[in-house]
Structure formats: structure tokens, C-alpha cells
Amino acid sequence: MKISYNWLKDFVKINIPAEELANKLSVSGFEVEEVIHMNEHLHDVYVGKITKIEKHPEADKLQICQVDVGNKQVQIITSATNVFEGAVVPVSLEGADLANGVKIKPTAFRGVKSEGMFCSGEELGIDENYIEGAGINGILILPSSMRAGEKIEDALMLNDVVFDINVTPNRPDCNSVIGIAREVCAIYDLEFTDVDYSYKATGDDVKKYINVEVKTDKCPRYMASFVKDLKIERSPLWLRSRLFSVGIKPINTIVDITNYVLIEQGQPMHAFEYKHLAGKKIIVRQAKDGEQIKVLNGNSYSLSHDDMVIADSEKPVVIAGVIGGVNSCVEEGTKETVFECAVFDLKSVRLTSRKFGLATDSSLRYSKGVYLSTPINAIKRALNLVCTLKCGTIVGGLIDTCKEKYTPRTVKASLKKIDKILGIEIDRKRIFQILNSLGIKSTINGDTIICSLPYTREDIECENDLAEELIRIYGYDVYNNIEGGAFENSSVTIGAYEPRLVMENEMKKELVDNGFYETLNYSLYSSTACEKLLIEDERKIVIKLANPISEDLSTVRTVMAHALLLDIKYNLSVGNKNLRFFETGRIYLPKALPLTELPVENNRLSIAVCEDGYDFFMLKNVMENLLLSTSCEYKIERSTEPYLHSGVSADIFAKDGKKVGWFGKIHKKILKNYDINHDVYYAELDTDYLASLPEKKFAVKELSKFPAVERDIAVVVDEEVTNKELISAIKSACGKHFDGVELFDVYRSEQLGENKKSLAYKIRLISEEKTLTTEEINAIINKVLRSLEFRYRAKLRV
Amino acid sequence: MNEKLDAILKNGLEEIEKCTDLKALDEVRVRFLGKQGELTAILRNMKEIPPEERKNVGMKANTIREKLENALSEKTNKMEEEKLLADMAKEKIDITMPSKGVKKGALHPLTRFNNKFMDICVEMGFTVIQGPEIDTDYYNFEALNVPKNHPARDMQDSLYITDNILMRTQTSNMQVHAMETIKPPFKIVCPGRVYRNDDDSSHSPIFNQFEALVVDENIGLKDLMKMIDTILKRLFGEDVKMRVRPSYFPFTEPSIEIDATCQICKGKGCSLCKGSGFSEVFGAGVVNPKVLEMSGIDSKKYSGFAFGPGIDRSVMITNRIPNIKYLFRNDIRFLKQMR
């Protein structure tokens, strides 16, 4: 909401620097997002009168002008062709810094000095709507009545400051000059002076000209007045200046008046072209289903019963509170008009305006809320302006459909409770005074305060609301100056982390120590993700957004791998190499579609590596170490994940059979789908499941007093025999003396033969009772070798 | 005999001094103190010395022997140390060569900030909980005093799934979940992702918030202000200043926005803070009693406060991240700067 400082001054005598006022408004609940000085680029620009024009002796296209700028005469060279002797023009002199970036300094053209420049409307930041001649491609010729030497900002009434204020939804009354003015009065404890609402009307009666009928409950008040003998012309500069400052295009006297009232009083108005109102009737009603209307923006809309319209006896002429139909508005040549000043139901206007995507000054205002009390002053103010502008004859009487008599609402509250909410005690006299300055009359009786509220303060209902009003005017600085800390009068609570976060943080630390970088990806992605990953299971059932921002963000993810693969592709594309990434995040698995109940949100840890020399077993090591952060007992099997290389990947199963993760090389087809020319390793864990396991427990075995011994063996087996099989055979053959086994070499050669491999193991043996003798050790190793040979036809390699 | 002994001492010490390696030194030892050594010879031939001199000569010879032995061991130690130092000098390396082993990676800056924030809250007695990102209209809006068609819904452009289910627009949904499931008194904090139908150069459709909620007897604005003061000091340093602006959130009353000294310009005013010297960090307020009641908490007995910072911006400011899109682009050149 843009508010002009000059306009505010109509209501309150205030003259403090704009920045200071802006800051004060901000800390009082009306955040000023920007302070715009209308004259920022107008300093050193004056009204000048050209007294003499001569041709430049050296240049055909240049003219030498002598210009009266009040206290002195200056010489200006111009190439403009629309200047003439006696013309009054804007003159920028040394120091000027114009809106288009031009800075003025004295110069010379072919030996003739020029002390400044004439300005066009554009260079002053104004257009044809603001003042005639400002839109042309040439110098702005000002009215000859303007006095040479006057500052241009004064002459053109651009000496204003505009505050762009963010008005919160609970204060729709402050989407108006008058509302903000009231706040300024409260903040600075100043007197509020209202503007003039008086007007002169003929003895005639408005009811003879127009008949208003409200046939809906969504229009609690409809006021109308009638003005004839209209003079539709350009409004005076002061009015155009006000509208221009707040970003509204001046059009003509009557339209400008309705806009002026909108900004000043916060009340949308409409001025009907009377001759197009069939039957001289205004009917406020719900539209009929399928009823058509063509509106001012050129579009036609098909209405339904949910939409409210203003109709004449034949057709809808305005979508109520939103936009006027073609031919509904006053225009050049209009002789008579009906002013509408109404209150429409906020929800109804919101729905219609949303449905058609129509956001107008009027609909925005109605959607925030217009009060039953505003139309009466607003319509009077409009008629007052008609008188001031002498642009029509006002017919006597006002139509008003509102039967409700306004009685102020009261709220009863406990002062002690207010103290408790604030945590401080404000002096009772000060409470009375603050409320009074906000237009709230109060009586205090012991602990009870009874407040009588203005119509516009529907937001105030209880102690909390009053506490806010008090503290925002009293000032939040008070808390900087009081002793003590938080929670002095409340319970002690013990803080804690969610167990999953604790586990995740441990895993993250492990990964970071291992050279991994944490990524963050959107949990929304393209609907093609599953297809690209060849996923055919329940993860293909995805939740889609009803109103996505784009296709790339249309689907709620069910797979983590997609985003990490895209990250790798992106990094490779910008020349980054050796990528180790991990990410924690959620997948969202619907129980059924369309969604009737909330999906399962499952937390995952995912890992992706794209690095020269990386292999499956390096990733396996990472996974083993990560799982040490949990109490999970697990086994691995060949993976069935569709996007992993089936020969170089594993699924991780917990003891209860739950698949808690997987890891391995990405399928070559997937790499092609993502256009990645490098092997990628990927892993994932279900962190919700892992965190749900009981806390890891330790039970330490007694340490043997006797030394352990090591023996190396190498056996040749068929390729199909797995390390795991051999190790478990070794372990069981060693029996109670087993203290560990480690594969330390794998060897293949022609000599060994095709489909054969040699595996070398270091076996550790120990006894709890004695030092093992060589004979005992040899016996155990022989048993191991016999067992390996028997089970896997393993031959000792010599 | 005395002269002979003096000469042995003199010669011995000189020879020792002359030695340049351990081998030579050993030869000197043998020559004087060995079985066939000069001094040993004298001691061995004591019987040839007149008995009256024997005692003195014997004492003197032993003293000389001690002196030579001391000189020898001193010299040996010295030479051994020299050799050690010489050997070590040969091992000298270029210490500017690269380190070996795995180079550490890094957490995402958002995680680092989150962890710091959570640590502060946990120390202050808050429990960290998380909840659904896909939620019903009731938890995201209605139970927070934002009925359908309320103007406050305009403040948040939502991403809908069905008419009734949406991507949460704020972590405040967790306020309702907490109030429904935990009995007061409690203090909770919920970090999490939120979603808006908003994607431009300064907005990301997905961003991160915190939601902190306290419900207890006797909780008021003072508790909120003092707690936020502590948090800001911990996050940004003791000299941080805070500015409070009244604001509006349907679920808190009074509602405030908290600005903290702009961490880019340290309050001097810069383009980021539009010259104000402050940047917005939290929305906060005293819980609206209507919200307590809707979740079944007796607002006559209990009161509360809530605050919710959007953290992406704070992360950007504290880490001087020039572009919000960096946060989700996962460019390793960016992530490496977070080590």
C-alpha cells in the first residue's frame, strides 16, 4: 500500500523527516518497505521562460536560447524543435541528476556555452496522463501561467514522499490514508483532523432517478447517489499528483474522484454510465448460472450462482466488487452518473476474483475487508470532491440499503491477564491513554477493563489482542531494559534430540571424515524420474501436485537416486571430478491414489560416488562402517534394485527380513539415461528403520592371557565359490580356537586354469587356557584344509 | 714414574680429542686402557715399583684411568649424537608436499546452521521433533486459526495435492501435532522443509524453517524476548542487536518480526538490508488462545509462545553465499568451501 506523506498531512499535523516516520511506523506494526522521494531526481530543475531564440552560427540543428529562470538569465543550447520564444519549460541546471541518469554540467557546443538543458516529461519521470505535453518526444511545454524560477517539483506538485507500507491482513482499515493517519496520531499522540465531507445538492431526490434493490445476503450495504450535468475532463493537477504518487493513472474527473476516495477512505466506488442502466435500476444479486458478461479488460466471463453481480433490469453490468462491464463506466461525453459505494462479502469477492484470475484495486480491497461504516463518509467525500472540482450537479438524497444501526462493540478483559501475556506491567493510566489514542474508549474498574471499539477494529477480541495494541505503541524496547531471563516462572524441561537425528548426525560425521560432501535436493522432481530409473514396483505410484510450478517440480519423490544422479551429471558438466556425495531426505509413499490419507514419509540416507579408481568394496566399507552406528544385525544378498548393476550390487537385509538398504554400481543403462560417461556407485539406507532399532548394547568378552598365532593358507577354488562361504567353513573348522580370518590376496592365472581363483587367508588362532603348540596349530589348519576341500573342492596352493 | 703417568694422561687426552670416528676412538681405548694398553701395563707391573711409591702411583694411575674413561665416553656420546643428527638431516623432506589419505568432506551449510540452532534449543530444554511435510489443510491452516478464504492465506502460496492435502507451507503444522500429542508443559523445536508455489531469483519453492513452541503456565512475551535474545547472541555473537517489529500471524497474538544486526554490514547499512542495518530473522509471537483451545489445551491455565525462523537466508548471510540457488545446486566447488 502506497501512502503519500502530503496526503497524510491532510489528517495530521506532522512534519518530521520521512525516514524517521517510516522507521516509527515499522516498529509500530506497519512495515515501511520503501521510502520513495518523488523529487529525488528533480533537484536543480526550475521553471524557465525562453526570452529569445537565435540560430547557432556553426550548427544548423542547434538553437541558442536565452532563458529567464527567475533570479537570473541563462543560456541554453538545444536541438529540440518544439521550443519557441515565450515558451515556459523545465530547465535543468548544473548539479541536476535526472531520472534517466543524465547529470547536468555546463558545457559548450561548437564554442557557444550552454548552462543547462531543457527537459522532456520522460526526463522528469512523468507522462501524458500526468500533464499534457509530457508524453511527446520533445521538450515539455508547461502552462504559461507557471512562474519562472519556481522549483519544478513545486510547480508540478512532485514535492512528495511516498511510503510503501506492508499492511498486515488483520488491519484492512489501514489500507487507506485515513487509517494510516489514525495510526500516526496514536504513535505520536497527535490530534486527528478529518477532511471536509460537506457538499451542496439540489432539492431534487435521487430516488426519482435510480432504484436500488439488493437480492443477496452478500451485500450488507449499498449506497448510491446521483450526479448530473457532468463535466468529464482532466482533473486539476493537485488531484492528479495525489493519484500519480500512489501509482494510479489519472483518467478524468469522475473516475479520479472514485480512485481518490478508494485510496483516502479505503472504500472502492464505481461510477455508472447512467444512460446504459436499463430500467434505471440497480439490482445486486447472485449471477444466474451461465450468465455472460464482457468486462473492461476486453474478456468475457461465464458467471455462476457463486458470483455476485450488479445488474440493471436486463443484464449484469458489473461483477460486484471486482470489475465493471463494458459500457458500465463514465467516459467522455457521459452526462449523468450513479455513484456506487457498497460493502460486499469478503469471501464472495475473493472467490470470484480468484476464479477468474481478476485482481483489481477494488477486488483486492474487498478481499481484505471493507467495513459497514466506511461507505457513508466515502460517498460524502466523493460528492464533496464533485463540488470542489465543480464537475457536476449533485441530486439531493442518498440511497442506503443498510438498516443496521451501528453500536460500538465492547470487549471485557482482565488487566492481570494482559500483564501475564506481556510479562511486564504497564501503568494503568498509560493503558487508558494508549487505547484512547487508537480510538478505543475504555473504562477500568479494578482488574477489569471494558473497551468500546470502533467499527474498524473487528480484529480485537480478547486480552491477547489488547496486549498487542498496548505493547506496539508502548514500544518493544522495554524488554531490553528489564532484568531476568526466559522461563523464570515456568517449568524446567529436559531437552533432547529425536533419536534418528542423533544417528544421522553420527553417520554424517563418518561420511564427512571419509571425504563425502552433503548435498540438498528438492523433494519434488519430474514425473519421468521412475521411468529413467527403470522402476516398476510400488515406487512408481507417485503423488502429483495439483498446481505444480513446472514439470520438473511436479511429482513428490519416491526415489532418492534421481536427484543425486542429476547432481553428478551437473558437476561433471561443469568440469568437477571426484565426487562423493551424500544426502538425507524423505521419500513419500502414498497408500493409495488419489490421496485420501497422508502418505508414509520415509527418511533415507543416500550416497553417490563418481570417482576414478573407486570400487564396490570401497563403498562396501563405507556401508559397513555406517551400519556400525546402529545396532542392526544384517546380511547382504545380490541386489534386485532395478537401477543397480545386478552383478556389482548388494541389498542389505536386517534379521527380521526387512530390506534396510542397498549399494553398488549404477546400471549401465541408467548411466545412459542420465547421460553420464563415468561409473557411479550408489547406496541407500532406511534411516527411520535403523533408528527404530534398540540402542546398541556392548558385552565385552574376557581377553585371553595367551598369545594368538597366525597361519597363512592359500587355496584354489572355482570362481563360483564365494569368500563368505570359505570364511564360514574356516570359522567352523577352527572351532573354539577361532580368533579371526582375513582374506589378503586373490590371484588368477593361466596355470591355475580357467574358472579358478586362488584365495589367501590369514587365520588367527587362540586358546583361553594355554599357548597353542605347533602340533595343535597344524592339526587345526589341516582340519580347515580338509573341510575346505570336502565342501568346496578347494586345493591347497603350494 | 710420575712423569710417565702424566705423559700417558696428556697423550691419551690428545689422542681422544683427535679422533673423528668411533673406530679410531676404540683404537685409542685399546692403546691406553686395553689389556695390552700403556696404562694397563703400568698397573700390571706395580711390583717393579718401589713399595713406598706403590700406593701413590697406584692411586694416580687409577685416577688417570678414570679421567681417560670419562673422556672416552664423553667423546663417544658426542660422536653418537652427531651421527644421529647427521642421519636425521638426511631424512629431511619437503613439508609442503601434499598430505596423504582421504581428504575430509563437508556438511551442507544448512545442516551446520541447523545443528547449531538445535544445540542451542536443546540446551535450553527443547526437544527436537519432526513431522509430516505432506499434511492436511487442518494442520497447516485451520488449526492455526487460518480458516478457508482467510486473507492470511494470500501470504502463502500453497502447493496442493488434493483440496484437503498439501505440501506444508510452514513448519507451524508441527505446533498442532505437538499440542495434540504432548501434554504441557513442553518445549519443542522442529526443523524441516516447507514448500511454496514461488520460484524466482530470490525465492526457492522449497526452503527450511524451524518451529519452536513452548506451552506452560505463565509463559509470556518476556520469555519470548529473552529467549530470542539468547539465541541471537549464540548464533551471531554477543554484540548482535535486535529490533522488534509488530506483525501479524493468525496463530500468535501479539505477533512480532525480529530483525537482527545485518551480518553483512554489521549494522552499517548495505544493499542486502536495504540500508537499514538490520535483516529479518524470526517471526514470533504469543500463542493465540484460540489455537490452544482448538488443539484441546486449556487457554485459561496455559499460555505459550512460538517462533519460526526461515533459516536459508540466515545461512546465506552468515556464510556470505551470493546466490540462494547455490543452496540446492550441489556444485562441489561450492560445497568444498564449506570444509
Can you say what the CATH homologous superfamily of the largest domain in chain B is? Bira Bifunctional Protein, Domain 2
User: Ends of chain B: how far apart?
Assistant: 80 Å
Strand order of the largest sheet of chain B: 1-5-6-10-9-8-7
Per DSSP E runs of 2 or more residues, the count of β-strands of chain B stands at 10
Descriptive account of the structure:
The complex is a heterodimer of chains A (798) and B (339). Chain A has 798 residues and is α+β, with helices and mostly antiparallel strands. Chain A has six domains: 2-38 and 161-188, Phenylalanyl-tRNA Synthetase, Chain B, domain 1; 45-155, OB fold (Dihydrolipoamide Acetyltransferase, E2P) (Beta Barrel), CATH 2.40.50.140; 206-400, Phenylalanyl-tRNA Synthetase, Chain B, domain 3, CATH 3.50.40; 409-480, Phenylalanyl-tRNA Synthetase, Chain B, domain 1, CATH 3.30.56; 499-692, 2-Layer Sandwich (BirA Bifunctional Protein, domain 2); 709-796, 2-Layer Sandwich (Alpha-Beta Plaits), CATH 3.30.70.380. Chain A is 26% helix and 26% strand. Chain A has a seven-stranded mixed sheet with strand order 26-29-30-34-33-32-31. In chain B, 42% of the residues lie in helices and 19% in strands. Chain B has twelve helices and ten strands. By secondary structure, chain B is α+β, with helices and mostly antiparallel strands. In chain B, strands 1-5-6-10-9-8-7 form a seven-stranded mixed sheet, with helices on both faces. Chain B has a three-stranded antiparallel sheet with strand order 2-4-3. In chain B, a hairpin with a 2-residue loop joins strand 7 and strand 8 (252-261). In chain B, helix 1 packs antiparallel against helix 2. At the A-B interface, helix 8, helix 11, helix 13, helix 14 and strand 26 of A face helix 5, strand 1, strand 2, strand 3 and strand 5 of B.
